[in-house]
């Protein structure tokens, strides 16, 4: 495969408190294409001093500025303008994200369409959330008010930066909170384009900052005394660290972490009504999605039938340049990520699972961080490939004895983020869905709804994002009695 790295815009300034300013240091992030391994762009790398400046601007905006004091409806109008400005920039955001991270264009389009939906939904939250209410009881009455929690520090990963940033920024801003956003260094360009959309929408000074940087700067933001709440999306290991740091000072925290979600296929449903949604839920975006459904649970009597059908689908997928029409599997985002996925594939073989298809690097592609879509069968749920989040295009088929056994397998995980159950029996589908301990679960589908509560049980995180539930972590409740 011969390909040329597409042009991606470089930046030389940081977005601090709503203004483009010179960075405090000369450090830069070199953005490298996962497709060609060539240099794409350069952006400033934020430092602790930049975080200090951004938090100071946010603190002033919260303590003295108009944003927290505007009515929720007035803030909603600004959020509506942000959504419109994001919509204008989707073509460049899509091109940049595809170039930076290697997501096929169809995936990138979907992610950025989701971003505009999040802004539009958050713009109407004031119609559905009671920011003030009168409450009466025997012997008294009070005004219950819900106020912005304060300055928010937000850390997002690289696998969907504009969508994830929008999922956090939009409810925080709707609540009246200023936000300091730290994107990951692997995908900073599209988030700086998002900053341009925020600027164009006319937010007051100090309300939003965008500071691409690595882990150390992220820890500085999390521990900053001027930050009242932290919202983090990333790995469970990193989430533990963030939670411990927030615990030291009782800072509010929301965590959206890893997953190892299961799709349960019941015996009564034809496979042609299953695989069209279940398989893409596992290999979409090369499996680099926290809610990916990568464990497929099927009865022993249907195991071989499902494996044969799934292998046929996976082996037919086009792997290659994410900009080319028809490409389904692009590269992994980083060389270290490819190494990690290949290590899990070796572990699956060593532990005795059957490698059915894939398992290597695609033939004919001599550059880029690619791994073939891979299918394991005859796996046991105790294996590492069934217990640990791989974050790559690796699906594991696990046989079960009966539906109750399938539910036990699905719940035998430290995670609980997403899931699916496929059956023609509506009552059975609801029974299974209620029994699986996960934050979201689909019956006869496997997707994601960005305007409804999203989050996990167990080590998949704390709190919810999206919809009415998504604004709650950014509000504090106060009782005013005697008025």
UniProtKB/TrEMBL annotation:
<comment type="similarity">
    <text>Belongs to the aldehyde dehydrogenase family.</text>
</comment>
<feature type="domain" description="Aldehyde dehydrogenase">
    <location>
        <begin position="20"/>
        <end position="480"/>
    </location>
</feature>
<dbReference type="InterPro" id="IPR015590">
    <property type="entry name" value="Aldehyde_DH_dom"/>
</dbReference>
<dbReference type="Pfam" id="PF00171">
    <property type="entry name" value="Aldedh"/>
</dbReference>
<dbReference type="InterPro" id="IPR016162">
    <property type="entry name" value="Ald_DH_N"/>
</dbReference>
<dbReference type="InterPro" id="IPR029510">
    <property type="entry name" value="Ald_DH_CS_GLU"/>
</dbReference>
<keyword id="KW-0560">Oxidoreductase</keyword>
<dbReference type="GO" id="GO:0004029">
    <property type="term" value="F:aldehyde dehydrogenase (NAD+) activity"/>
</dbReference>
<dbReference type="InterPro" id="IPR016161">
    <property type="entry name" value="Ald_DH/histidinol_DH"/>
</dbReference>
<feature type="active site">
    <location>
        <position position="256"/>
    </location>
</feature>
<protein>
    <recommendedName>
        <fullName>aldehyde dehydrogenase (NAD(+))</fullName>
        <ecNumber>1.2.1.3</ecNumber>
    </recommendedName>
</protein>
<dbReference type="InterPro" id="IPR016160">
    <property type="entry name" value="Ald_DH_CS_CYS"/>
</dbReference>
<dbReference type="InterPro" id="IPR016163">
    <property type="entry name" value="Ald_DH_C"/>
</dbReference>
């Amino acid at each position: 495969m011969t390909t040329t790295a597409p042009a991606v815009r470089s930046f030389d300034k940081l977005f601090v408190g709503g203004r483009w300013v010179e960075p405090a240091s000369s450090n830069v992030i070199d953005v490298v294409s996962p497709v060609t391994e060539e240099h794409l762009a350069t952006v400033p790398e934020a430092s602790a001093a930049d975080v200090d400046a951004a938090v100071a601007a946010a603190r002033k905006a919260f303590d003295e500025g108009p944003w927290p004091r505007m009515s929720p409806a007035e803030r909603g109008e600004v959020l509506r303008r942000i959504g419109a400005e994001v919509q204008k920039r989707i073509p460049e955001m899509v091109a940049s994200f595809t170039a930076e991270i290697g997501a096929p264009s169809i995936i990138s389009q979907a992610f950025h369409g989701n971003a505009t939906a999040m802004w539009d939904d958050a713009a109407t939250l004031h119609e559905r959330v009671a920011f003030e209410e009168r409450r009466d009881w025997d012997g008294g009455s009070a005004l219950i008010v819900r106020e912005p929690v304060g300055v928010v520090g937000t850390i997002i990963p690289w696998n969907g930066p504009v969508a994830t940033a929008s999922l956090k920024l939009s409810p925080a801003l709707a609540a009246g909170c200023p936000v300091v956003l730290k994107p990951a260094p692997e995908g900073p360009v599209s988030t700086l384009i998002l900053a341009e959309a925020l600027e164009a929408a006319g937010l007051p000074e100090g309300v939003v900052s965008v500071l691409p940087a690595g882990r150390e700067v992220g820890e500085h933001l999390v521990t900053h005394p001027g930050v009242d709440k932290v919202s983090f999306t990333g790995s469970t290991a990193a989430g533990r660290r963030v939670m411990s740091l927030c615990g030291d000072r009782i800072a509010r925290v929301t965590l959206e972490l890893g997953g190892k979600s299961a799709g349960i296929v019941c015996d009564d449903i034809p496979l042609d009504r299953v695989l069209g949604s279940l398989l893409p839920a596992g290999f979409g975006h090369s499996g680099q999605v926290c809610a990916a459904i990568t464990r497929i649970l099927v009865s022993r009597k249907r195991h071989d039938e499902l494996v044969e059908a799934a292998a046929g689908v996976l082996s037919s997928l086009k792997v290659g340049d994410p900009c080319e029409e028809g490409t389904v599997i692009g590269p992994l985002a980083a060389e270290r990520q490819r190494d990690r996925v290949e290590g899990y594939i070796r572990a699956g073989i060593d532990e005795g699972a059957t490698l059915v298809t894939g398992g290597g690097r695609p033939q004919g592609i001599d550059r880029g961080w690619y791994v073939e879509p891979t299918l394991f069968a005859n796996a046991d749920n105790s294996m590492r490939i069934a217990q640990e989040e791989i974050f790559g295009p690796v699906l594991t088929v696990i046989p079960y004895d009966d539906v109750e056994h399938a539910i036990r397998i699905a719940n035998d995980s430290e995670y609980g983020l997403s899931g699916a159950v496929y059956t023609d029996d509506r009552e059975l589908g609801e029974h299974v869905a209620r029994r699986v301990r996960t934050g979201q679960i689909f019956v006869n589908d496997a997707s994601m709804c960005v305007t409804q509560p999203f989050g996990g049980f167990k080590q998949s995180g704390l709190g919810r994002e999206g919809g009415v539930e998504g604004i709650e972590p950014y509000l504090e409740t106060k009782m005013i009695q005697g008025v």
